[in-house]
Amino acid sequence: HINITLGSLLDDQHWHSVLIEHFNNQVNFTVDKHTHHFHAKGEFNYLDLDYELSFGGIPVPGKSGTLSRRNFHGCFENIYYNGVNIIDLARRHKSQIYFVGNISFSCLEPQVVPVTFLSSSSYLALPGTSGQEEIFISFQFRTWNKEGLLLSIKLHQASGGFLLYLSDGKVKISLH
């Protein structure tokens, strides 16, 4: 009996990858590019799968599994077993695949459309509105540069403004 644990913060609503490779007694278990290599003890030269392979839960009563009451709730993509696309077989309702419970061939998630600024003279501009008492701004970014202006707001009165920028690889805020 072998228990291996890999991964952390896997409930962050981001995609995570899992790869299991079995060659004779050598097993490679990979989660998000972190791999644990181990040797299975005993006669483990082949996998004698007992009846079925289940993704997302243990649907058959009486099958072993300590998590049988806590089946997976989320999305799977790119499920391959020995090179066979399992999701494609399920979508085409092939007889070797069956469903238990409600599933959908889509995954609800916010549509993210990134924008790339190709030069230091590129930017997006949004017309300002006067008389607002509060603003709420959120965004994600990634860059390889340690310096750069992320957001600037000019205030209507006098020469005031708001700057959000990268300096020495840190996010800084300046309000005038």
Topology:
Layout: E1 18-23, E2 26-31, E3 34-39, E4 80-81, E5 84-85, H1 86-91, E6 148-154, E7 161-167, E8 170-175
The biggest sheet, with number of strands, parallel, antiparallel or mixed sense and barrel status, is: 3 strands, antiparallel
Please state the structural category. mainly beta
Q: What low-confidence regions span 5 or more consecutive residues with pLDDT below 50?
A: none
Q: Spatial order of the strands in the main sheet?
A: 1-2-3
Question: What letter string, H or E per element, gives the SSE order?
Answer: EEEEEHEEE
Strand residues, percent: 15-25%
Percentage of residues assigned to helices: under 10%
* Count of helical regions: 1
Shape annotation: elongated
Kindly, what is the distance between the CA atoms of the first and last residues, rounded to a whole number of angstroms? Answer: 64 Å
* Global Rg: 25 Å
Arithmetic mean of pLDDT = 78
Say how many strands there are: 8
